[in-house]
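Sample entry follows:

:::
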Amino acid sequence: MLWKMNPPVKDWSQRRVWVIGASSGIGAALAREWLARGAKVVLSARREAVLHQVAGGHAGAAVVPLDAADPDVWPDATRAAEAAFGGLDLVVYAAARYDAVQSTNFDPALAQQGFDLNVVALYRCLAEVAPRLAREQRGGIALVGSISGYTGLPKAMIYGATKAALINLAESLYFELAPRKVAVYLINPGFVDTPMTAKNDFRMPGLMTPDDAAQTILRGMERGRFEIRFPRGVAGGLRWLSRLPHAIRFRLLHWGTGL
């Protein structure tokens, strides 16, 4: 099938996974799900105590605290993550920040912070892990984007722009790394019940729990998908909408959001 763009994953047992942004939300749920399936998981985020709570004393978990936006941490953090279980089979970048802003009430410092964590820090991560995996011709990299990267949306002028960048980046990575036998996964969630979405003051269609999101992501990887988007109706609808002419798309978005 055309959607099997990566090698299907048949067994997570003993796979070595590094989850960056593992203290809450989708990252924490992914870490717990992989541990439950027998994987070896390195958990990273700023809050070390919370990471230990997520790990729950599991023998297959290791904690490597880091502030992903700090440009100096990546070489040492990568070495520590690799040393925890003797290498890495999958690196998942799930760190992100979300600020609901509009052009009429906008602080450029928020854009700097959003791009530093959501995009620039990811490049620093890739600079460490992508050459290693390409040389070894194995493993995989997963980027957690968002369906908000498909098209401009109200209050998402920073977050949506960073996720659009990740979508483009994941596609470029796939072109370069897939021939070197490195899997690339683009994870595009809709609304997931996390501390980030708790800031929203509007109805969130298709809202999912982090655990359901994590299970959906793993099913996508097990099926060899490149893009894993969910929930199906909301994500598919917005993807379809993003391909319409602008005049039609904007009219439908205004109607759908009431803004």
